[in-house]
């Protein structure tokens, strides 16, 4: 896969993946096309050497792996981890609001959202809906309005003269999006809007909506930005960029060695769920693959937790340690925190640097300022749950947790090249 092809396909993946459920469906489609076989957790597994498999939990988390040609207890497993969720605004269960002739819906803030950029954007809506169909069966379906259907208008500066110096956002009162105008006697129900959308999307006739998990998203698609198009602007770069890099790396490996990709949901809210990194999903897959040899396999193995890093902002350079300010398009960032907010140690960092240097590719290192708090990833959670040597790394970006983020166009492809080599390297430790 060449750089231009990589970037174009990445942009298509980002645009087609407005929610974790859509992202996992798109990851599975790529794995299907590459010859991987779908597994069901409810069934027995008969795994063969040299084959590719994947398993999905909750529709929003996925583990894909190549069994390799050797026993994992002797050869170990080369692992990459990422997460499928991104901060957003999710629709409440009883969302209808009618104010001054406008139909709005109540929203709940999911994750650490940077709220101000959500105002004055063209918003669409997508997610998973559980319904009762006209045959009396309970089923799930994905919904994606695709077109702009909502807007959160800012209050005019004339009505708030301190808007540029002292405006805060109240998540309860300031964020309900406007969907349409309605007459005074309006009785529109959000459930009915969903029923009509589902029928128009895939022809499913729903007699009743039983539940949903829906989030608003920026309707503007991914785009190349900059006079030289050296930047990629998109929603959900954190962390669908890493999911895409991970699946492409796994697909492009030789298949000789045991290799695995896990993309967990719920990282942005702490990962404590059945399908999150603090849950048992990955551990259960490893048990079924490795059996009694799991402990030996883990001792031979290494995990690369791929989650984007904070590039040094030219207008706020003092927010970074002066020796650790990652620059966009100058390589993926090894993330270090000795208080274990990142799981990187000297051994895992050394292996990445060694492979990267062998390929002649750049890399950088990030350490948060000593007087600031540090974020975290699925890396420490996975390392603690499995006991596996782990590296935290990520592509540098601007605007993390904004509705629209910015990354360099070269860094993702660089990380793809290094991870592909890592996943097929015979000796790890």
Topology:
Blueprint: H1 3-15, H2 20-33, E1 37-39, E2 52-57, E3 61-66, H3 72-75, E4 78-83, E5 88-99, E6 102-110, E7 123-133, E8 138-144, H4 163-166, E9 178-181, H5 190-202, E10 206-218, E11 223-225, E12 231-234, H6 237-251, E13 259-264, H7 281-290, H8 294-299, E14 302-306, E15 309-310, E16 333-335, H9 346-358, E17 364-366, H10 378-386, E18 389-394, E19 396-398, E20 405-408, H11 411-424
Parallel strand pairs: 1-2, 4-13, 4-14, 14-18, 15-19, 16-17
Antiparallel strand pairs: 2-3, 3-13, 5-6, 5-10, 6-9, 7-8, 7-10, 11-12, 12-20, 16-18, 19-20
Helix pairs in contact: 2-6, 6-11
Describe the structure.
The chain is an alpha/beta fold. It has two domains: 3-86 and 235-424, Aminopeptidase, CATH 3.40.630.10; 88-218, Aminopeptidase i, Domain 2 (Roll). It is built from eleven helices and 20 strands. The strands form three sheets. Strands 1-2-3-13-4-14-18-16-17 form a nine-stranded mixed beta sheet, with helices on both faces. A hairpin with a 4-residue loop joins β7 and β8 (138-144). α2 (20-33) packs parallel to α6 (237-251). The chain is globular, with a radius of gyration of 22 Å. The model has no long low-confidence stretch (mean pLDDT 96).
């Amino acid at each position: 896969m060449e750089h231009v092809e990589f970037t174009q396909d990445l942009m298509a993946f980002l645009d087609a993946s407005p929610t974790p459920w859509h992202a996992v469906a798109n990851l599975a489609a790529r794995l299907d096309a590459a010859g991987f076989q779908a597994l069901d957790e409810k069934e027995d597994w008969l795994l063969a050497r040299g084959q590719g498999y994947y398993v999905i939990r909750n529709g929003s988390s996925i583990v894909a792996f190549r069994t390799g040609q050797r026993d994992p207890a002797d050869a170990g497993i080369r692992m990459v981890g990422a997460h499928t969720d991104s901060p957003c605004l999710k629709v409440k269960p009883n969302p209808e609001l009618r104010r001054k002739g406008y139909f709005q819906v109540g929203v709940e803030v999911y994750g650490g959202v940077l709220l101000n950029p959500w105002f004055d954007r063209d918003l669409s809506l997508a997610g998973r809906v559980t319904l009762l169909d006209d045959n009396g069966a309970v089923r799930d379906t994905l919904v994606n309005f695709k077109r702009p259907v909502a807007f959160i208008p800012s209050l005019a500066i004339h009505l708030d003269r301190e808007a540029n110096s002292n405006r805060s956002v109240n998540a309860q009162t300031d964020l309900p999006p406007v969907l349409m105008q309605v007459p005074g006697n309006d009785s529109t129900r959000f459930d009915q809007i969903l029923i009509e959308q589902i029928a128009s999307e895939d022809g499913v006739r729903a007699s009743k909506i039983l539940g949903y998990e829906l989030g608003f998203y920026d309707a503007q698609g991914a785009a190349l930005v900059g006079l030289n198009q050296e930047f990629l602007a998109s929603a959900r770069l954190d962390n669908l960029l890493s999911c895409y890099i991970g699946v492409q790396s796994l697909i492009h490996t030789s298949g000789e060695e045991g290799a695995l990709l896990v993309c967990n949901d719920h990282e942005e809210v702490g990962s404590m769920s059945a399908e999150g990194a603090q849950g048992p999903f990955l551990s259960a897959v490893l048990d079924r693959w490795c059996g009694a040899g799991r402990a030996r396999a883990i001792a031979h193995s290494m995990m690369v937790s791929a989650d984007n890093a904070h590039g040094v902002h030219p207008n706020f350079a003092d927010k970074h340690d002066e020796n650790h300010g990652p620059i966009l398009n100058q390589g993926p960032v090894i993330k270090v925190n000795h208080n274990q907010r990142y799981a990187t140690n000297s051994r895992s960092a050394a292996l990445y640097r060694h492979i990267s240097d062998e390929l002649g590719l750049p890399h950088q290192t990030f350490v948060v300022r000593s007087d600031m708090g540090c974020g975290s990833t699925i890396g420490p959670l996975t390392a603690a749950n499995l006991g596996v040597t782990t590296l935290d790394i990520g592509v540098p970006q601007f605007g993390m947790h904004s509705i629209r983020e910015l990354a360099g166009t070269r860094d993702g492809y660089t990380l793809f090249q290094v991870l592909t080599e890592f996943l097929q390297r015979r000796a790890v430790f």
